[in-house]
Amino acid sequence: MPVKQSLVLDGEKDELVKISGILGKGNGVSDAKTLAALKSHCEAERRRRERINAHFATLRDLVPSNEKMDKATLLAEVISQVKQMKKTAACASEGLHIPMDHDEVKVEEFNENQGNDTKTFSFKASLCSDYRPDLLSDLRQSIDDLPVKLLRAEISTLRSRVKSVFFLTASEEGPEARDVLINSVHSALSNILDKVSASTQYSQSFFPRKRSRASYFHS
Question: 23 by DSSP, 3-state: which?
Fold first, then answer.
């Protein structure tokens, strides 16, 4: 019985190879289409591997090392360095109030220089979220509704993110009253964050996200 030779894709060699088989009733047009499809797939696979190898070459140039690393070791080293850079960036930006990617509300005591005044205590409250047109007015209204005095505010933006930090003071009425007040401030800011999050989810469903300029100011 006649023997038929066919072309198949060798995944390891990334090329077409011939195999033999028993010849039956075939279709020359179908064989031609199959061959064209295999060649197209082979070429696409070759280009894909070239791109991957080019990216790995770039990573090797970026990662300082005296030893040649295989791909798995290289990726592990890149992941380790990216984590370290994120940690370093977070530490460096801690005092700069740079908006981060995640939403956050924080209220903590702050040792503002008030001389020998023991009748008041100071703390700072911060909110990090997406920017919305009514965000600042909501924040100001919440601060005004609380039994606190605003010492100053520092607000920074990065693209569509904004971080608002308020330095506050209040009458010292004991540890329990202090905890109640801090919890009240945290709750007020959390309610605003919930409103911002809901508004952001709604707007992203209908409109593309707009980016704002990076800026920093205080009052």
Answer: coil
**Residue 9 CB coordination number (10 Å):** 15
In this structure, what token pair is assigned to residue 79?
Answer: 């992941």
Q: Which helix (H) or strand (E) holds 161?
A: strand 161-171
- Return the amino acid letter for 28: G
46 phi-psi bin (left φ>0, alpha ψ -120 to 50, beta other): alpha
Residues counted in the chain: 219
Specify the amino acid at residue 191: N
What are the φ/ψ torsions at residue 127 (nearest 5 degrees)?
Answer: -135, 130
Buried b (16+ CB within 10 A) or exposed e, 113-144: eeeeeeeebbbbbbbbbbbbeebeebbeebbe
Per-residue pLDDT of the chain (219 residues; tens, 9 = 90+): 454 555 555 555 555 555 554 444 555 556 677 777 788 888 888 899 999 999 988 988 888 777 788 889 989 999 999 999 888 877 776 666 778 888 999 999 887 655 556 788 899 999 999 998 899 999 999 999 999 999 999 999 888 899 999 999 998 888 888 899 999 999 999 999 999 888 766 555 544 544 444 444 455
How far is 218 from 153, CA to CA, in rounded Å? 5
Q: What is the CA radius of gyration of the chain?
A: 31
**Token digits of residue 216:** 């920093």
